[in-house]
Amino acid sequence: MFTGIIQRTGTVARKNESRLLVRARLSAKPGDSVAVNGACLTVTAPRSRAALCFDVHEETWGRTNLGALKPGDLVNLEPALRAGEPLGGHLVSGHIDAPARIIKLSRLSGGFARLRVELPAALKNLVAVKGSIAVDGISLTVTRVVRGWFEAALVPHTLASTNLARRRPGESVNLEADLIARYVARSLGR
User: Fold this and answer.
1) Distance of CA 170 to CAs 23, 41, 99, 118, 130, Å?
2) The domain 98-187 is classified under which CATH number: 3.40.50.450, 2.60.40.10, 2.40.30.20, 2.10.25.10?
3) pTM
4) pLDDT at 143 over 90
5) Whole-angstrom distance between the N-terminal and C-terminal Cα of the chain?
6) Which helix (H) or strand (E) holds 80?
7) What is the torsional sign of CA 76, 79, 82, 84?
8) At 6, is the pLDDT very low, low, confident or very high (cuts 50, 70, 90)?
């Protein structure tokens, strides 16, 4: 489990059909779970104190935005939540529901921004105003939902601490709906 509070960003060093190497200063050992752009991956070997290696299955490459990564791309990183740590965001499983495209990233006064993202049909009943959603692993509060898209407000800290400040319209982000919304919708039969 994760919280959606990004601990570090890392840079893709290498990628092939089954491995991802990320340069990052993040303490992890083989077997640890780390969310990479929100997707839960297992550390296979720390290559050094400054790099992490992950085995990635073709299913993950195809169902997330990880498949489109190139060397030099910035990724969000969060180690798994440990018992007793504060839950600063919301519960995030690291199981991506769908990738979606950024429609707009508008800069606002005071260092804030507004992010507009496509809303895949599979998630339309799981996203609500004032609800939570993970975008590339970042816990965000939904501020607006319209047919086919949603918006979230970004605070200056989020822009400074994640890869969102560098993202552009048309780029793909990973979405994970709120776990509570998922189970409520399931119990209501939607």
Assistant:
1) 25, 25, 12, 10, 25
2) 2.40.30.20
3) 0.93
4) yes
5) 25
6) none
7) negative
8) very high
